[in-house]
Amino acid sequence: MAVPKRKHSNSRSGKRRSHHRIKPRQLTYCPQCSTPVPTHVVCPKCGAYQGRIVVEMEQQ
């Protein structure tokens, strides 16, 4: 079985892990009701997606 000859330095490990951070959700505003909504998601308030009504919402 192959075994590394030397230990990877902390710097090298850190460079590899530099992309492992959690990125914040990207928010856009619904063109119908101006509610902040994550991208590629149907608006929970009005049911619109890409300029058309996809889900009929009940009026409360």
Automatic annotation (TrEMBL):
<dbReference type="GO" id="GO:0015934">
    <property type="term" value="C:large ribosomal subunit"/>
</dbReference>
<dbReference type="InterPro" id="IPR011332">
    <property type="entry name" value="Ribosomal_zn-bd"/>
</dbReference>
<protein>
    <recommendedName>
        <fullName>Large ribosomal subunit protein bL32</fullName>
    </recommendedName>
</protein>
<feature type="region of interest" description="Disordered">
    <location>
        <begin position="1"/>
        <end position="24"/>
    </location>
</feature>
<keyword id="KW-0689">Ribosomal protein</keyword>
<comment type="similarity">
    <text>Belongs to the bacterial ribosomal protein bL32 family.</text>
</comment>
<dbReference type="GO" id="GO:0006412">
    <property type="term" value="P:translation"/>
</dbReference>
<keyword id="KW-0687">Ribonucleoprotein</keyword>
<dbReference type="GO" id="GO:0003735">
    <property type="term" value="F:structural constituent of ribosome"/>
</dbReference>
<dbReference type="Pfam" id="PF01783">
    <property type="entry name" value="Ribosomal_L32p"/>
</dbReference>
<dbReference type="InterPro" id="IPR002677">
    <property type="entry name" value="Ribosomal_bL32"/>
</dbReference>
<dbReference type="InterPro" id="IPR044957">
    <property type="entry name" value="Ribosomal_bL32_bact"/>
</dbReference>
